[in-house]
Amino acid sequence: MQADLDHAQDVIRIAARLDWTWSVDDLDRFCAATGWTVATRFESGGSLTTDLSAATPGARFLISDGRINYVSFTVVETDDGELVLDSFADLGGRMVATLGQPTWRKPGGRPKMRWDLPKVVVFLSTLESEVFVRLVRPEYQREEDYIDEVVIPWIDANPEEHQ
After folding, report:
1. pTM (2 decimals)?
2. Domain span at residue 84?
3. Could you tell me which residues come within 8 angstroms of residue 160 by beta carbon, excluding any fewer than 6 positions away?
C-alpha cells in the first residue's frame, strides 16, 4: 500500500504540473507522463490502465463535447475502515506538502479535500472502502458547483415547480 501512496502522490504531482487543455489529446500526454495507457476510449469516456495495485487498478475518464471532464482513480481499496482513514490522512498530508493547503476540506467519517489549481481541480475523497482521486477540468467543476450550490437548493425549495 505504501508504494501506491507514493505512486499516487507522483501522479498527482504530474497532474498538477501538466499544461492541461482538457482536449482528448491530453490523455496521451498524461499517460506518457505517468506510465499509464489508454485501455478503452469512447465518445463519452473510457478507462486507463494504471500500475496501481488497488483492487480496481484502472482509472476512468469522462468526456463530453470532445473535452475531458475528469479522470478518476482508486488509490486504496479495503474493507478495513481504519486503513481507509489512515491512508486518506497520509496521502492528504503528502498532497498538502505537494499542492499547498486545500481550497476546501470536509472532515468526518468520509473526509474529502479539494485543491483548485489554475489548470486542474484535484479531489482526494473517501468512500466506505476506498480512497480515490479525481482530477477535474476547472470549467466542468464550476458547472458542478453551480448545480450543487444553486440548482439543487432551488429544486429542494420549489418541489411543485419540477414534478
Report:
1. 0.87
2. 2-137
3. none
